[in-house]
Specification:
This protein is of the alpha+beta class and 94 residues long. The protein has three helices and five strands; from the N terminus they run αββββαβα.
């Protein structure tokens, strides 16, 4: 599984759910209200992780919490479906 292709598809899911791309200190985040998320690929784990901050100040300082891991050894459709479900459940709920 080509991780850059999957990363693009994952970022599309963020955008389709209402997140907006924003760059902070040269790092691209996805913002929804006051939540700032970024996707990181962990090569040694063959997995993506969502790192998030609850406000712009924490994002600027790099104070990020790690979310669930999305392993690339499962079918792409399953990975993307799980990501969408988790975003709706953990990041979009008020």
């Amino acid at each position: 599984m080509e991780y850059k292709v999957i990363l693009d598809k994952m970022e599309d899911i963020f955008i389709n759910l209402g997140f907006s791309p924003v760059t902070i200190n040269g790092i691209e985040f996805m913002r929804y209200k006051e939540c700032y998320c970024r996707l990181t690929f962990l090569k040694e784990w063959s997995a993506f992780v969502i790192e998030s901050a609850d406000n712009v100040q924490d994002a600027e300082k790099g104070i990020l919490e790690d979310g669930d891991l999305y392993y690339t050894d499962i079918p792409e459709t399953q990975l993307l479906s799980q990501l969408k479900s988790d975003l709706e459940k953990y990041y979009l709920s008020d």
